[in-house]
Amino acid sequence: MTTQYQRLNLTSLPAQLPAVLEAARQQQLSYEAFLEAALQVELDGRQDRAQQRRVRAARLPFAARLERFDFRFQPSVSERLMRELASLAFLQTATNVVWVGPPGVGKTHLACSLATAALDAGHSALFVTLRELGQQLAQPAPRGGLAVVRRYSQPTVLVLDEVGYSQLSADQAHGLFELITARYERRPTLVTSNLTFAEWGGLLGDDVLASALLDRLLHHAEVVAINGRSYRMRQRATGDGAAPPSGGREPGP
Ligand code: ADP
Ligand code: MG
Q: With 60 as the cut, is the pLDDT of residue 46 above it?
């Protein structure tokens, strides 16, 4: 038998009703105040679930937050700039951010932190590595190509991670170009890369296409070059409580 709650699609209130009733009795709420409290419980539940859906749909690899980034460990990253970006003005201006640096220096963490800030504020986000994007673009029609470009054009924030670990075919390179062009001046793209911009020609297999792509990507963009130590290696050195061996060599990029 469908209840009135089910027919109204009230999903949070039924489970919480005993607590809401109990609180209303204790506080001797008026009918108006009780109804308002009950409806608020339902609204809050809906908002929470919408938020959880958005977070799941974003497919971030880990729950990165700016507050958990140790700026003292990575002095080449401007804390002021990151905080300014996390205030989300970059959404309005569709300003891209490109982090360039060796592995382990926090590029993905910082990109995901901004995506998380956007999610917190109710925006959509989506994370993908260039390798995954390339694989999706290469699928046969109607799943690949333009459909993929459209899919990744839509989220308010796109994180394009690990640009540089895979070589793109001509079709994949054009797909990436279409995507950056579709988002250009509309929605920000957050890119992490171990490549210098001069190396993008090799990645795309086409210098002209690479410079056209970089032209759009970098027109309204913050570029953050990180040239510090790997945080992963630091964790390895101190993770088991043992001091790193004296005279041990510092892991390179
Ligand atoms: P990259 O993408 O540059 O290879 P990641 O962002 O994946 O590096 O960082 C590797 C790991 O180290 C992640 O778990 C990340 O949260 C952590 N990390 C990196 N830099 C910092 C930092 N400065 N403060 C705190 N955690 C960090
Ligand atoms: Mg990374």
A: yes
3-state SS assignment for residue 160: strand
In degrees and rounded to multiples of 5, residue 160 shows phi and psi of: -110, 105
Q: Is the dihedral of CA 202, 204, 206, 208 positive or negative?
A: negative
CA-based nearest residue to 127, from 199, 45, 208, 57: 57
Write down the domain spans for the chain. 2-56, 59-238
CATH fold for the domain made of 59-238: Rossmann fold (3.40.50)
Closest atom, ligand 1, to C-alpha of 64: 16
| Cα of 230 from ligand 2 centre, angstroms | 11
Strand partners, 99: 192, 224
* Residue percentage of the chain with pLDDT more than 70: 92
DSSP state of 230: -
Query: Which of 91, 100, 77 minimizes the C-alpha distance to 192?
Result: 100
Question: What pTM was estimated for this model as a whole?
Answer: 0.86
Ligand 1 atom with least separation from CA of 110:
6
**Confidence at residue 229, expressed as pLDDT on a 0 to 100 scale:** 85
